[in-house]
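>> Question from a student workshop board

For tomorrow's exercise we were told to take the sequence and the ligand below, predict the bound structure, and bring the output to class. My setup keeps failing. Could a helper post the expected result so I can at least see what it should look like? The ligand is adenosine-5'-triphosphate.
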Amino acid sequence: MHRFANPTRFLRIANAVFPWVAASAALSLLVGLWFALFDSPADYQQGETVRIMYVHVPAAWMCLFTYTVMAVASATYLIWKHPLADVAAQAAAPIGAGFTAVALATGSLWGQPMWGTWWVWDARLTSVLILFLLYLGHIALVNAFDEPERGSKAGAILALVGFVNVPIIKFSVDWWNTLHQPASVSRLDAPAIDPSMLTPLLIMALAFKLFFVTVLLLRIRSGLVQRRIRAIRMIEQAG
Amino acid sequence: MPLERKAFETQADSLSATGLTVARGGRLVFKGVDFSIGAGDALIVKGPNGAGKSTLIRTVAGLVPVLSGTMTLSVAGKPVDRPDVGIHLAYVGLQDGTKPTMTAEETLLFWRSVHGHVPDAAIITSALDRFGLSRRSALQTRYFSTGQKRRLALARLIAVPAPVWLLDEPTVGLDTDAVAALEDCLAAHRERGGLTILATHTPIGLTGSPLTVDLADHQPDAETALAALTGEDLAEDAS
Amino acid sequence: MPLERKAFETQADSLSATGLTVARGGRLVFKGVDFSIGAGDALIVKGPNGAGKSTLIRTVAGLVPVLSGTMTLSVAGKPVDRPDVGIHLAYVGLQDGTKPTMTAEETLLFWRSVHGHVPDAAIITSALDRFGLSRRSALQTRYFSTGQKRRLALARLIAVPAPVWLLDEPTVGLDTDAVAALEDCLAAHRERGGLTILATHTPIGLTGSPLTVDLADHQPDAETALAALTGEDLAEDAS
Amino acid sequence: MSGFGAIVMRDLRLAVRQGADAAMVVMFFVLVVALFPLGVGPEPNLLSRMASGIVWVAALLAATLSYDRMFQSDHDDGSLDLLILSPMSLEMLVLAKCLAHWLTTGLPMLLIAPLLASMLNLEGEAYPALLAGMALGTPVLSLLGSVGAALVLGARRAGVLVALLVLPLTVPVLIFGVAAIEAAATGQTSRPHLMLLGAASLASLVLCPLASAAALRHAAS
Amino acid sequence: MSGFGAIVMRDLRLAVRQGADAAMVVMFFVLVVALFPLGVGPEPNLLSRMASGIVWVAALLAATLSYDRMFQSDHDDGSLDLLILSPMSLEMLVLAKCLAHWLTTGLPMLLIAPLLASMLNLEGEAYPALLAGMALGTPVLSLLGSVGAALVLGARRAGVLVALLVLPLTVPVLIFGVAAIEAAATGQTSRPHLMLLGAASLASLVLCPLASAAALRHAAS
Ligand code: HEM
Ligand SMILES: Nc1ncnc2c1ncn2[C@@H]1O[C@H](COP(=O)(O)OP(=O)(O)OP(=O)(O)O)[C@@H](O)[C@H]1O
Ligand SMILES: Nc1ncnc2c1ncn2[C@@H]1O[C@H](COP(=O)(O)OP(=O)(O)OP(=O)(O)O)[C@@H](O)[C@H]1O
Ligand SMILES: [Mg+2]
Ligand SMILES: [Mg+2]
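>> Workshop helper replied:
Here is what the output should look like for this input. Compare the format with yours to find the bug.
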């Protein structure tokens, strides 16, 4: 796996696969959205608002997934010192923050009709909000240092420490009796949810994953270029 | 704990570096620095402002990571592995490491016990004496002038004996008496077979013929700097 | 505003002090210091560590209150009243007053405008040139070494002209080129009829025969110290 | 550029370059608001009753954390000595500092407050009072903060000390700010409370610079 | 005296000499608690419902304000370089620092908490849970704080940044601590919550020193 950790070699591979990933992301997104918006039944109870699910749930899944990716990359960076892992972790953070923001936004949009309020301070919602702040904190920390090296290392350590929050989010709904999960799982697990609703959801989930990979590749690439630029600028400024 | 006892029984035989290259703030500071000193030797680090003297000394201390090159301190015949190097060093940098509300005496006592030495009033007094601080030993250091703080920092060299001394511009802010005192200490230290690395702009009287590195000869040219700072080498470095 | 214009048109004719006595931290530092310098003169403040050099300079600048004694700066024939003295001074102390995230150029520009001077690129460049920082003018000062920061602090003397210079150990941390540059500046300043008070441990080349005060001769003995610190004198001082 | 403008510009530049201070203060503000519901439980009606109080308390605390940066770093790196020696009057200096501080602290909090209030589902008709209250109140926080920040210069552990000095002084702001919102929420007029806030900010605009300047004069040495 | 003891003793001595840090943190703790009744109004029953939450939130905030002093001053005056070079392991160093921090922060808050709770008239049977919760929870605050403090060394605006990093991580402590009190107040058992707190403090006792030490290793340079 170390072969891929070499930036130049990685760039070659990345450039090769990028178009395909991007294309399939776009395609699956289109298909998924079409299903979600037009070719799936409105919920007998929630009505049209159920369609929010097709964005909310994948986004919510991704915000946890992305943080996991970040933690793994950070560990790789700290243990094997692969610069690429560091670039990857830093590239993932803003994307994860984005997904979390979407989960929060769609969630509260959905909450209005479902729970009659935009926001409840139950364990899941709060822990997701904290996840969001962790993302922002990570971004702030990485950029708060003179030494880029320091920022990377500090960010990596924080990512690992903050990972404890992920299981908390995942199981918050089981640990504390919250407004959130009952509404959801019963709806998902119940036989009531037929393929016509599950398929689009899964397609959307796939689309979000592909989208993530696409953006991640882009950001890693620009991250590597940025380092080169910074090096050049520092040299011509300070000689 | 054994670690703590090790500290003051050792006697280093040699400290050497080859092809030392260091970057700070994403910028290459110096490249390809070689030196090798044995028991009783002193190495004077020269160079204009910004050449990298402080950086070099902090690198030797292990406080700044090396980009490439090797460094070996050998004690009692065998090389010391990186994490333990610090134990054999006494570092006096630009910051004095004094606490405004601690007296001169308390400061030295503290550093002794941190280094696992038995608190020994006699040594403390002699150390303070050596730098003309005995009358101020019970005074909190917030009442010390610049030079008096520097003197206290230097008194640490006597209070906490170590085979290798790393001194970064030790004469800064000292009056002539203090400089003389420092020169005596250096002579005695080298008598005992101690090693010394010393960065300075002002001449310091040293017995024998000290070795010198002039960092002006090790400033990086643009290409090397660029190569060293872009991902590839880092990756190779990690492998 | 008039205040701001005053700053750089003035030409001081004399600065004198009689019976200057100062206490810090409830302790008498020096007593009965007299001096008087005219246009083009330089006063060198001597004394061992802790004699009170920095304190004297900060007292002249009005940053440390006097316990007893008088000080008069006369500009264009008439004495300046205390609060306005600062306007005619350029003080370079032990701290450089540089901000890590501001570039050398921005720093000087800022100090110029604070002193009500028009921002003048030419002067800034020449000031940076004078101290060999021109290649670093666009670099944030967090990337500066100790000596480079000192150089920037000294460059302020050129960028923000003032008739009276107060320099506290200006050569600390400077390499030989920088010291030479400083000596040139001092010569030119005195040519122009500027006044200089300068504390130093290392010899500085000064044209003509500078006056000197040796604070070693002004250390307080126990009883004066006591007398000076008991209420009465303070009261007189206040009256 | 006048000395005043120069200082404001420079402080803003520093704030932006030094890892977006403003953003951090806002994030802290958000965090504090987020902590409460966790502490006191999620019942919406309970929260909406406390919303105004929570938002204002959070604002006070967030501002408190940011005071130390007003003069401390200038004091530590020697800039303050030079500013004191500069031709501009200390009062102007303090005003410039306060303006910069408000722009990087009070203003962003003012902008985000409605969002947080809505998360604590505050009654709709209370928002104007919330905004007006913060617009009038946050300057007081910056101005009083400058006094505290100037007073503790050179003291060790300035961070907590300044908090201790300033928090009690800012309590009236908290009370009137909350009262204004409560009044609006319960359909009464919030004008009197807002008037009082306005008076407070005018008074502090006049008095605080004097106090801070005096404190700064002694801070050197 | 061992290096560990030396560092604890020295930090305590500094805390005492430097204007009684401990006292300041406690006073901040009291102030925050005092702000709330002002913010949300004085109804006793409302307050007693919120008492547990308020006390814990105040504890979190007070602790947050005190984190920066754990390593920052040692970093600024160069002591940290020397400590890193000293023969004692960084993990031990961190533990010593955390112990000193807890003794000057967590312990005093633990001691004063009952008084504050009674001012917010918390139910009588909840006090054991409050004390047990704080005894188990405050060490976690110090330990997590050390990680944040070590991470932000050398960072710009470290003060606010450390708050941002640590507060989210300490939220579980808040939740369990409050839950324990609520349970006791409503006559249920608070053991499970206290168990979770105990688990958290054990986990952080093992993990945090490692994380902090790793952060410190990179903090120099
Ligand atoms: C801002 C408010 C909300 C947030 C932050 C939020 C957060 C989350 C998160 C993090 C997940 C992923 C859970 C996992 O992967 O185990 C999730 C899943 C889900 N959410 Fe939400 N949610 C919110 C509001 C809502 C609302 C109002 C509904 C509908 C009543 C809802 C329905 C669901 C469903 C059905 C799932 C998928 C089922 C599952 O994964 O167990 N959410 N939400
Ligand atoms: N902040 C302070 N508070 C109280 N006393 C002080 C303070 N700073 C210095 N002193 C005392 O005043 C005396 C003079 O200090 P000062 O810094 O002026 O000496 P100096 O001549 O500049 O010494 P150096 O050559 O080391 O710079 C010192 O002996 C010190 O004890
Ligand atoms: N904290 C830092 N971050 C990034 N770059 C730095 C940092 N400190 C120094 N540098 C850069 O490294 C170079 C060497 O700095 P260093 O302090 O080692 O020089 P020096 O030889 O000690 O100079 P001086 O004689 O002024 O002490 C400087 O040119 C500077 O640009
Ligand atoms: Mg140096
Ligand atoms: Mg001095």
